[in-house]
Amino acid sequence: MTEAIEQTIEEQFRAFVAARSPALLRTAYLLTGDWGIAEDLLQTALTKTYLAWLRLGVIESVEPYARRVLVTTATSWWRRRWHRERPTAVLPDREATDGVDERAERDLLWRFVQGLPNRQRAVLVLRFYEDQTEAETARLLRVSVGTVKSQCARALSTLRTRMAEQGIEPAVRLRSAPRAAVPAPRGAVEAVDGELAGARVRP
Hints:
Blueprint: H1 3-32, H2 35-56, H3 62-79, H4 100-114, H5 118-129, H6 134-141, H7 145-165, H8 186-196
Helix pairs in contact: 1-2, 1-3, 1-5, 2-3, 4-7, 4-8, 5-7, 5-8, 6-7
């Protein structure tokens, strides 16, 4: 590889990082539930992406590639028991225009999502926030479609039960929206809230 090509790749990578790091960091946070771990995860994923870019010379779809690396790296960390759940008092940003009851419900739901097992939370993040199909989610997590279905069902069942124990029914009835139209990380919680309310997503 020539020095000129390496320079071009570096410039394109820097532009990609500047443009897409915030969105990738939100995904990392949803996967880990901890901002510090999310930053480490993103840095590792971006480094792997850059090295692969240099090795391959070209990556046609950089963001999907980086997201795949992000998910596989998170999965690897979980399997090696690098990841530890940390309680956090900082909740995702939210708009001040929401009603008090709806905001409280969303915060509570988010805490319940954070308390899910790693794989179940990862399935919800990919299915509802990333708007991935069951097949795409299975490929990213390197599991079967059946596992995705069962993990999603268990996660939603747990959330329904915990919400019911609090005497709360989902107030946000949101149908699946295009990825760009769903804010994050608040949008991921709303999407799950919508599923709890009976909305449908792509099979």
